[in-house]
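Format notes (please read before filing issues)

Several people have asked whether sequences and structure tokens are stored in separate files. They are not. Every record keeps both together, in the order shown below: the sequence lines, then the token lines. Line labels are part of the format and must not be stripped during preprocessing.
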Amino acid sequence: MSQISAERKELLLRRYGSRTSDLAGSGGRRPGGFGRPRGPRGAIGGGKPKSASATIRRLLAYIGSDKYKILLVFICVLGGSLTTLGGSYILRPIINNLVAADRTVDEKVANLLLGILIMAAIYFIGVLCSYLQQRIMVGVSQNAQVKIREDLFSKIQKLPVKYHDTHTHGDIMSRFTNDLDLVGMMLNSTMTQIFSGIVTLIGTVTLMFVTNWILAIVTIVTVPFLTYVGRLIGLRSRRYFAEQQQVLGAINGYIEETVSGQKVIKVFSHEETTMKEFEFLSDELRNRQMKAQFFGGIMGPVMGNLSQISYALSATVGGILCLTANFDIGGLTIFTNYSRQFSRPVNELSQQMNTIYAALAGAERVFEVMDETPEAADPADAIGICSEVNQMDDARPIKGEVVLKNVTFGYVPGKTILKNINVTAKPGQKIAFVGSTGAGKTTITNLINRFYEIEEGQILIDGIDIKKIKKDSLRSNIAMVLQDTHLFSGTVRENIRYGRLDARDEEVIAAAKIACAHSFIERLSDGYDTLLDGDGANLSQGERQLLNIARAAISKAPILILDEATSSVDTRTEKYIERGMDQLMKNRTTFVIAHRLSTVRNADQIIVLEQGEIIEQGTHEELLEMGGRYYQLYTGAIELD
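Then the structure lines:
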């Protein structure tokens, strides 16, 4: 098999990461989750990572509600750090006592035992502080993770359909799982490590000057060099960890798509190609991880070895002072110990670099989603609507008249999809849209739902501009049956009731009968209480679509949209569905998109679209008499592409 081209490699990296909203090449290809268009985006490499300080501040805001617990954690960290410093300082009188010439052996042993007991008590307090700090911090970090996860999920619900059109599901899931796990690890350990390091550093420097100011200056002279080397490695490490998280999102997106598309892959015998592409993405992830882990991993050893230089200088100068300046052996012992402790905070932080930089890169990806522009808020004077058969006190009843006046729209600037569309659907009428793929049929239904905002013109429902209607109220009064079926985990009954959560069991059964689904549901092992596998995998494609139709049937929405609803069922099932549809569409304004022209013959109005413009409009008989595009499509003179 031929190797993957450089262009294909670049496309893989771009496509399965966070994708741009460039739909210019998509024509009318089903945005809104109905056959997602794919646009390029530079998801990998390049660009400067966002501000680490800003990311850290946002993370700290999530633990603000646990400030008293954090204060207790810091007290424990402070206690633990002070016990470490105090335990080391006890060594000075112990050692000086042992080498003193004017003490007897019994006195030396007694003082040694006393010193050991004091050190044991100090270190016991340190162990207790460490236990408490870890126990409390685990709870704080988990609380913060819950809040971040809930905010992220809440934001996902508020994002426009356009966002989901331009980002792979795998990349979004990676932010919920991998990225958030890394953030939790950092909150759990790194914060306490930083505070402990600062306290230890300040305490160590203070005791070093108390012990011997000359040796303290010798040790501190090496700090600028250590800082420079640490910063140099840290910047490189952060860059590679950011790239690692981006490629991880890309590979998750690829896995999600290939797993869900296994049948297509097998039908066209693309297993080897898929494996080759996955191997490429896996190699890219490995390369990014190797660089990230390498630069994150060498920080500790490099800083540790450099600190040995400081330790050697301190020991050398201290030895000279012991011989020439009456510096005591105990003082030299604890100073060399402090010299090691002086570099310990830096070494500990460097050993946390893997977690820190990976977590910051993950947090940035999480906050990228949170910073996305949500759907435009409803205006203050927005109103609610309801059907006449399901009236509500705070909503205006509507009959279901839908009017599109001079509607012009494009997904991206400069690429117009719909041009000056004018359609009037009277209450209860059936309006059918036909035309080639990319003509803009589904785009019209997306605009009626306000999944996208129109550029020019108006869409009116019973004379009310949909921009003045609350979005949730608007969409709850529009039932949709899509070509792409989707069922949720749960029972058959629960999936049908998803169309109206307060529906009674009798209404669920009635809706299933309208959709011609009742008979096959009764044959299931537990009837309406049968549990469905993931996305209804234990049902046939036709049965899944029947449940989707039943879901729309149970809704009391006065407007119905059928987007090629019968395209995935066989001809026999389609006939059953059509009979049910006749009942479903009674007293509802219905928009039908279909490639099978036989399904739209009884429409009150058939609209023929080409390249975003209405070229013909009328009933089935009227359009046949015209002998135009529709006549050619219907008679087979030309085919829908």
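For reference, the curators noted about this record: The longest strand covers residues 402-409. The radius of gyration is 35 Å.
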